[in-house]
Amino acid sequence: MSWRSWLSGKALPAPDAPHALLAEIEKRGRQYLDDVDNGKWVYPACKRLSSDAGADRATVCDHTRLEAFRYLLMVPRGEFKLLAEPDSQGAAIEAYLRQRPHEDIVIEFSGNAMNDLATAVIAGFNWLNHCAGLAHADRRPFSGTLNHFRKVVLSAQKWWEMDGATARCAQILQAGQEPPLFLNLVWADYGRLAAEIAAGRGS
Asked: Is the pLDDT of residue 26 over 50?
């Protein structure tokens, strides 16, 4: 699911689309967690029964994706916003590729923005893998998740290392398309796996 479909019905200037997506994720993510705290939703979404509110496939997918992204919203000083900044892509990607994989869904931050973003991204994937187990979903799409995403990130790194990448990013956004911003990569893969969880519950 792209940012265009997730922000359906919102007329947004193309160059501002990544920031608009991030603002919408933050707004909806924090509201969702507040609603969970107030007892509105069964949490995690993957454990909802057919009789529970928000048990339809689309809502479970949406909420599971937000659950994974919440680790990024927890990064100190709101530095998750760097995910949408073209000038930060090289450093964010390099930090991710340097980060050793971990299996934690409870994490601590170091105070280094790029390292903390990398830790949070991996924790989000770990959460999705955890939810797949809780939901008894088909585990095949989750095999080698981090290796798959690493290949995606390596491809993006090559794109950003090319001359004129920042200008090319602006042109792509102006055309209403999606450049390989780290935000887009993470959001797309979280969505792919959340959809598998929502579709495969109980399989």
From this structure: yes
